[in-house]
Every structure is written in C-alpha cells, then in structure tokens.
Design brief:
Number of helices: 10
Mean pLDDT: 92
Oligomer: single chain
Keywords: Membrane, Transmembrane, Transmembrane helix
Protein name: ABC transporter permease
InterPro entries: CHP02185_IM
Number of strands: 0
Length: about 200
Amino acid sequence: MKGLKVQELISSGVYATVYFFVVAIATFLLRFTIPTFNTLFIPGLSALFSGVVYLIVINRVPKFGAITIVGSVMAIFFLVFGYFPLAFLPSIVFPLIADWIQNKTNLQEKLKTYLSYVVFSFGLTGPILPLWFMKEAYVASLLNRGKDMTYVNSVFAPITTASFFISMGATLVLSILGLTIGQKIYQKHFSKEARKGIK
C-alpha cells in the first residue's frame, strides 16, 4: 500500500465503490430469479459482471495494493452488516493473493491477468463457505441473531456436496467468461486507443 500515491488511493476507492454496486446488482438479480439457491451463485454472477471493473483497476492503478483495496470493500460490508464472523476473511485474503499474482509475479501477461481475476473472484465466497465447512457454528450464529429453525433449515436446504462443486465451478467458469467479456468492453470503451478516439 505504501507505493500508492494519494490520487491512486482515491481512484482505488472509487473503483471499490463501483465494484460494490456491481456485486449489489448481481445479488439483486439472483434474489428475484433464483430465490432458493441465489446465495450460492453470487460470487459467480458478480465475477461475470465485474471483469471490466477489474481491468480498469489493473490498467489505471497498476500497483500492488489497488486490487486488495477493491476487494476489501466487501470485507467491510460483511463486517458491518453482521454476516458470519469469518465471512470477511476471504474478501481480504483472495484479493491480496490476486494482487500479488498480478503485480509481483513474472507470469505471461494474459495468464497472469486471468489467474489473478479468478482468485480475486473467490473473495466473495466468504459468506457461503461456512455453510459447508462450519455448519454448527453457522447455525449457532443464526440462532443468536434471533432466527428460528424454520429459517435455519431453509438456509441449509441447498447445502450439499454437489451444490458446493456447482457453486465453486460456476465462480471459476463465470470469472473466466467475465474477464473475456470485460476485455472486449475495455478495449472498446476504456483503453487508451478508445479514449483517443473520443477526443
């Protein structure tokens, strides 16, 4: 973070806000289209929509720290709004790893960008991973928040081994697809060449 100048920190904050709204839109759409399984597909659909935002971040602020800031906005949201106590961690850890891949490795550029974005996209799995791996603690957390067992059972209804692989697989596939689509949008509207054309 020390390498980021004030203007770059501000820009990262702006892109983080944009990313937050993209995730909010994905969540909103899923809740009205897949009411039972919507939570499991939030990371994947968000990754499908966020590719162009990620490309803007890595091209406009090509320094270590920017990706971490953008991803961590969701960690703050999960903390403030009372999600499962550990839900915020992936939103810091995965973006941090993605940041390292993008800015600290010597991988081929295209591979590096795809790999870092896939890893970044898993940052939104924080609220759902405990459903499979920390069920008892998650149930206790819901009950402590005043939820009844009817609600708890509805939350865990779709939680199976198959749904885990479907959710994680969707995140993987949709992040790759999202970045591919994002590259086309970026080249057409946000690249240096596109901005020169506007001028």
